[in-house]
């Protein structure tokens, strides 16, 4: 059974001219289902195809065409619901949302208003290491995407591209549990991360397969708590909805501007009108798109072409059994099993591919050492290299694992390891062979080190005097020996021998 633990998130407080105000935010996220075919037709969902090349008769709404539900899309939405600890409704139904728009040839969108596929769930949103807050999910329903109108290709005409028409979307609706711009961005980031782990949505915000409608209201301190206690939304302020946000940065900016706009209205004695607004990032403001009076009456009704969707519990259970390890569980395991800090575990589990890379590189190596190498050396190098994604890393997990093993067995020093890493990164090859062939092995042979120390002591009598007065200066000799051995001497051994020979 679902056990909802609810800890209220922390409100952002904005000081108005007269008093303090708190933010209340609820989000409706549209996530494009990862599927090769559309929700009710077999047409391809390929991104960037020639306009109107992925359009079936169903998508074009030719007379007499009938929609046929794509089982895989339903499975993906169920998988998403299970990944968000949500209730799966074994019976759901599709409704028609009627409106006219040139990119909507049916004249209605097939959606789920009255009986959504997925009910209440929750997401733990990571705010900072060690701090996670629960945001409740109200529902997830399935619906069709619309096409695209193109207004900038011709001075006289507009064009319509129906490739996107009918692609499956999941609308993930949160409760108004988000309390500030940073929490809103963290919520979208966590949702995106879970979707990507589940493989149910690619979560690419630039190409629009994850977009958010952001509902914002402001209230006086204490009002939100009364809303939670009583469940009465009357305690909250009137909300405005900012449509179609597809950047984390703009989401935060838009919320901040919208909250300040509402505060100014209320403090001047006015009332906030419930309306749909658009954010203009160039001007840094939201502007009205339509007010409640202009809002459409969509005349929703059950789609007569589609039977209610009835799922079998066994089928749902089998999807549950096939869920991958999700970010929170993976992060906890990395902390517990490998002794990583919560911060490092968070960095490594941010993308499922990075987590898989780390685990493959770790093999039998020390977890912390491997984590350092993945995060500091590899991530740093990939970033410098034009932000190369980890999936295209020139150094494979096996190669990095070998480098780490060579450090761990003290076969090479940490400094030489960095040179070795660069060689493997740019030239490829087997790290063990490279170390052999290029004589990079660490010198642990004390006789060789002693010889070098003796020589440097003999050549530098003043430095010896100084070091005997000020033992800290022995570090200079260590540096000289490392230089003389091309960084290959074992620093621990060098340090010991220098101390002994100087009589410190
Ligand atoms: P509607 O039925 O009009 O679409 P919902 O109750 O479904 O409204 O809410 C839509 C979204 O708006 C949800 O994400 C919800 O959390 C959010 N929301 C509702 N009331 C408020 C409010 N007062 N302030 C901010 N967000 C809100
Ligand atoms: Mg709603």
Could you explain how this protein is built, in words?
The protein has 504 residues and is of the alpha+beta class. The chain is 39% helix and 19% strand. It has 3 domains: 15-294, no CATH class; 325-437, no CATH class; 446-502, Arc Repressor Mutant, subunit A. Strands 1, 2, 6, 7, 10, 11, 12, 13 and 14 form a 9-stranded mixed beta sheet that branches. The chain has a 3-stranded antiparallel beta sheet with strand order 5-4-15, with no helix packed on it. The termini are far apart. The mean pLDDT is 93.
Strand content: 15-25%
Number of domains: 3
Radius of gyration: 30 Å
So what's the overall shape?
A: elongated
End-to-end C-alpha gap: 68 Å
| Helix-residue proportion | 25-40%
| Heteromolecules bound | adenosine-5'-diphosphate, magnesium ion
Instruction: Specify the biggest β-sheet.
Output: 9 strands, mixed
Helix and strand composition category: alpha+beta
Number of strands: 16
Whole-number mean pLDDT: 93
Which segments are poorly predicted (pLDDT under 50) over 5 or more consecutive residues? Answer: none
In DSSP terms, counting alpha (H) and pi (I) runs of 4 or more, how many helices?
16
